[in-house]
Amino acid sequence: MLVSDIMRTNLKTIGTDATVSEAVDTFARSGLSALPVLDRHGRAVGTCSTRDILEAEARCTDQLARELLFDRTLVLEVMQPWPQTAGPQEDVAASPVACSMARSSGSSWKITARWSA
Question: Which of 5, 21, 109, 113 is in Cβ range 3.0-4.6 Å of 70 for a Cys bridge?
Fold first, then answer.
């Protein structure tokens, strides 16, 4: 089985120049809790999750800091760097990214991947 057999290509993304407020709006509209972050050339550079934003908000010491976080802070400043990945033509079993698949409710599958160099 190739990585391309289980990967998704129609991902919702956000740019590095989006504000934290725009990310929160995207999370709320999409129902997602994490998004790939793309630079201005369309290259994946990281991920931004609701957890990243909550952790940044927890570091705010007052209301002004919180307002600045949401209105002036860029996703680039709170995101996590892009993890190691496997290419679409790599064999899942031979890939350094260890994948495990587990059936969740109904007919959908949950795929978990981690780097195992």
Answer: 21
The pLDDT tens digits for 33-50 are: 999 899 999 888 989 999
The answer to whether 111 touches 99, Cβ cutoff 8 Å, is yes
Q: What gap in Å lies between CA 65 and CA 79, rounded to an integer?
A: 18
pLDDT score, position 31: 92
Burial class of 58 by CB neighbour count within 10 A (0 to 12, 13 to 18, 19+): exposed
Length of the chain: 117
Contacts of 42 (CB under 8 A, 6+ apart): none
Tokens of 73: 């802070």
Strand ranges for 22-91 from DSSP E: 34-38, 44-49, 80-81
Instruction: Write down the domain spans for the chain.
Output: 3-115
**39-78 pLDDT tens trace:** 999 888 989 999 999 999 999 999 999 999 999 999 999 9
Q: Which CATH class is domain 3-115?
A: alpha beta
